[in-house]
Design a protein that fits this description.
Pfam families: DNA_pol_A, UDG. GO terms for molecular function: DNA binding; DNA-directed DNA polymerase activity. This protein is α/β, with parallel strands linked by helices. It has 30 helices and 25 strands. The strands form seven sheets. The protein has a six-stranded mixed β-sheet with strand order 1-3-2-4-6-5, with helices on both faces. The chain has a six-stranded mixed β-sheet with strand order 8-11-10-9-12-13, sandwiched between helices.
Length: about 850
């Protein structure tokens, strides 16, 4: 078969043609042997090599694509064609826009129509975000991954099946080669589709009527709930039960429609039970299940189990009794999936089911995306709820098996310590979301008003300098100032100076501002730059914090327990995941791969100091107190590396920052020096930046941006060299971590957490900073998380009034009842100095380091 696709050498539909040596480059065949199906790979646009050759996919990315096609043996199943969303050369300086893809889509359609006339089936496989939009109008890859196999109607009413993956160029050693696993999974999905085996494991469930639990339970059972948003005509806009009450108007006790429980029976069959939550007899049986699970020390597993537990706690007091951190063990397939492959873009149960070939959802009349249940008695709802429980149980089993195959049966991911840590992490985030965090509304209002006054004064001052920073004409005025300042500093033409990709205008972003700050030390321009920076920071306080916290309950204050107080209920994330279960497909994800918890709506851990000062207690007779682990990441660096100087400082209680100042940055200096605080502060900056292999330029930038110091290049270079001369053991530890990462393609910690990289020296070259930082940052965060859980259990065991209300990677914020403060001090002293996970780390490295902490009262009892 020899198809000819039309070229469009005269095309001038968009401005890309002005850079093109070959315009309108058509689709081309790659492997054609007369199969019934044509698979069309759609890329973004022509690169430099393609522009010269007048042929698509002939550069680096094209070579990678051909290797992926060969490895997946797609050519055995179909004829393969290569195309692009945009058919002209796009220089790297020009951003790919939807406008370009819209202009070019008709030409892609004509090529597809030619294929449709010759082939029984045509399948599209988009590589990258622009290609995804071109064939489906889905705006992001993250959203596309939730819609694999969707029929696109853009090229005809019958629809064409579409699949999506990252552009192969992202696997370049300088970018993200760790994504190879995700791309391979997408290729395997397409292969299964082409073989007609896209769902090799069909999952069917039978929703059984609820019964009391058997005398002996299996080790793990699954649990899944369906809330009011599953009902026809009812929209669930928030996914915290307190927000459901105060924003969606659904009272406690009425927020859950059904609950399902899944378990494996003795012969390996899947059993599911369905409980109608509104029925008292069904709730009684559900509580009996929870009681039996707790008493036998079994584990409840869910997909984002935090969601299920939070709603059960708020909607049933008896469920809340058993669903407590001192009574119930939890696990989550989100965490297990992350341990299996931390770079997987698929997070939701439905898209994971598609990727793994678990069939079943395609037969459901009801889905969480389209709530169409008539009520809690709807049999379609029962089936869907039980299918979720069954899928969760299947995923739980397969994830643990796959972890063993990938990392070995002796991996710490499968041991009791890792399971205990996962349980701790789930309960930590449940408690943080349950309690929320209290703010003083009067202080917030004053902060907003004071900030506005500062902005107004700065705006007037800057106008005198000829700079408009807000309103009409501000963008042009700021660009002119940045250009003038860059010219004054001799930076025009400097590669570090940023320009917009589309029209090459000078950027007015933080990068350029920070660069100018390194050169503008004094004078009128320096003063103006300082005022611009202060104006932007102050305006951010208003627009990002003070105003939305008081006016937008979804992102700010939800309810007020008393006059002058308001409580925010952030969503907390232990790992990268979607914003909220059941949320919009447009929701952005939260969480980090570095082990730290993060929060959204609002992001309490990243509150600026002025906003943190508005934190308060919700009742009289309480104190808001923060306990902060002292230099925990530096201590972890000493513990992991065994560097003798670092270890000696901590074993003997010496100030590490002072040691760096005296021995490295300012030899001969002492605490008596007039500028000692500045010297110690710079030493602190260096101590932390070397943890992630930060170089001399970063030291120079930090000194200028955060301390206002202008340090010579050679001074900064010698400072870093001198640090590694003294701490050569620490340097060798970093080198060994890099070598292991290059050899294995991943780094695995004693707690089971891991990060994926590329293979070989080239494969890790883009990740050096992360490889060095990951063990230190993650294990430090996990020390606090395990300590937090140990203290949380003590709170529940003692029926205490004190609440954990916020978290930072090295700090806990508590509302402490004044009569309990002595008890809290004693218990926290125990868990903070000996976090439960610490012996696991000490055993792995064969040494120990003392842990210290500080305590600060932020808001006294009133």
């Amino acid at each position: 078969m020899n198809l000819t696709f039309p070229t469009y050498p005269e095309c001038a539909d968009c401005n890309l043609h002005t850079n093109a040596k070959n315009r309108g480059v058509p689709t081309r065949p790659l492997q054609v042997t007369g199969k019934d199906t044509a698979l069309v790979f759609v890329g973004e646009s022509l690169g430099y090599n393609e522009n010269l050759a007048g042929k698509s996919w002939v550069g680096y990315a094209g070579q990678l694509l051909e290797k992926l096609i060969a490895a997946s043996k797609l050519g055995d199943l179909c004829d393969i064609y290569l195309s692009n969303a945009c058919r002209c050369y796009r220089p790297q300086s020009i951003s790919m826009t939807q406008g370009y893809t819209n202009k070019c889509r008709p030409y892609l359609q004509k090529d597809i129509e030619i294929l449709q006339r010759q082939y029984k089936n045509v399948v599209l496989f988009a590589c990258g975000g622009p290609a995804t939009y071109s064939i489906s109008k889905i705006k992001t890859l993250a959203l596309a991954f939730r819609n694999q196999g969707i029929d696109s109607k853009l090229f005809g009413d019958e629809g064409i099946p579409c699949f999506f993956t990252n552009h192969p160029a992202i696997l370049h050693p300088s970018r993200k080669p760790a994504l190879i696993g995700a791309i391979e999974a997408h290729f395997n999905l397409v292969r299964r589709y082409l073989t007609g085996d896209i769902v090799p494991q069909k999952v069917k469930v039978e929703p059984l009527s609820p019964m009391y639990p058997p005398l002996e339970l299996p080790d793990r059972i699954s649990l899944d709930i369906e809330t009011y948003g599953i009902l026809k005509g009812v929209e669930q806009t928030v996914f915290n039960p307190v927000k459901s009450k105060y924003i969606d108007g659904i009272e406690f006790g009425k927020q859950i429609e059904t609950v399902s429980i899944g378990l494996w029976d003795g012969d390996g069959s899947l059993i599911t039970y369905l409980f109608q939550f509104g029925r008292r007899d069904h709730r009684a049986k559900l509580v009996a299940w929870l009681e039996r699970v707790s008493q036998q020390g079994k584990t409840i597993v869910g997909q984002n189990i935090k969601f299920d537990v939070l709603y059960l706690i708020h909607n049933c007091p008896l469920c809340a009794y058993w669903l407590a951190p001192n009574r119930m063990k939890l696990d989550d397939t989100l965490l297990l999936g992350f341990l299996l492959y931390d770079q997987s873009p698929e997070k939701g149960l439905k898209e994971i089911a598609v990727l793994r070939g678990y069939g079943g959802y395609e037969d459901c009349a009801i889905t969480a995306k389209h709530g169409t249940a008539s009520g809690p008695t709807d049999p379609d709802l029962h089936y869907y709820n039980c299918l979720d429980a069954g899928m969760t149980l299947l995923l739980d089993r397969d994830c643990r098996e796959d972890i063993g195959h990938k990392y070995g049966k002796n991996t710490p991911k499968l041991n009791a310590e890792c399971a205990a840590l996962r349980n701790a992490i789930i309960w930590d985030t449940v408690e943080l979301e349950k309690n929320g965090c209290c703010l003083d509304t009067a202080k917030l209002s004053k902060l907003k008003d004071d900030s506005q006054t500062v902005c107004d004064l700065l705006q007037k001052e800057l106008k005198k300098s000829g700079v408009i920073v807000a309103g009409e004409g501000s963008e042009k005025s700021l660009r002119e100032f940045v250009w003038k300042a860059a010219d004054e500093c001799g930076l025009l033409g400097d590669k570090r100076l940023g320009y917009t990709k589309s029209d090459k205008k000078i950027c007015i972003d933080k990068g350029n501002i920070a660069l100018l700050q390194q050169y503008l030390i004094e004078g009128a321009l320096a003063a103006t730059l300082k005022n611009i920076t202060k104006f932007k920071a102050t305006r951010d306080i208003i627009s990002r914090y003070a105003k939305p916290l008081q006016t937008k309950p979804r992102k700010g204050i939800v309810m007020s327990p008393c006059r002058g107080r308001g409580i925010v209920y952030p969503s907390w994330y232990p790992i990268p995941s979607y914003h909220s279960r059941g949320g919009s497909q447009e929701d952005k994800g939260g969480g980090t791969v570095q082990g730290r918890f993060s929060a959204q709506k609002p992001s309490v851990p990243t509150f600026p100091p002025l906003v943190k000062e508005c934190m308060a207690c919700r009742k009289h007779g309480y104190k808001l107190i923060v306990w902060d682990l002292s230099q925990i990441e530096l201590r972890m660096a000493a513990l992991l590396s065994g560097d003798p100087f670092m270890m000696d400082d901590y074993m003997n209680g010496r100030d590490r920052h002072a040691a760096t100042a005296k021995d490295i940055l300012y030899p001969g200096s002492s605490e008596e020096d007039e500028d000692w605080n500045d010297k110690r502060q710079l030493a602190k900056k260096e101590n932390f930046l070397v943890l992630y292999r930060g170089g001399w330029r970063r030291l120079q930038e930090v000194a200028r941006e955060e301390m206002g110091l202008s340090l010579p290049d050679e001074y900064c270079k010698e400072a870093v060299r001198a640090f590694y001369r003294k701490h050569s053991v620490f340097y060798q530890w970093q080198e060994s971590e890099i070598e292991k990462a290059a050899r294995k393609g991943y780094t695995e910690l004693p707690t089971g957490w891991s990060r994926s990289w590329g293979l070989g020296k080239q494969g890790v070259s883009a990740y050096i900073n992360e490889i060095c930082n990951f063990p230190i940052q993650t294990l430090s965060a996990q020390l606090m998380q395990s300590a937090q859980f140990a203290f949380l259990q003590r709170l529940y065991e003692g029926y205490m009034l004190t609440k954990i209300v916020s978290y930072a990677y090295d700090a806990l914020y508590l509302e402490v009842a004044i009569e309990e403060e002595e008890w809290v001090d004693r218990e926290l002293n125990y868990v903070l100095t000996r976090p439960p996970i610490l012996p696991t780390i000490e055993k792995a490295v064969g040494r120990s380091v003392p842990i210290e902490y500080s305590k600060e009262v932020l808001c006294d009892a009133t």
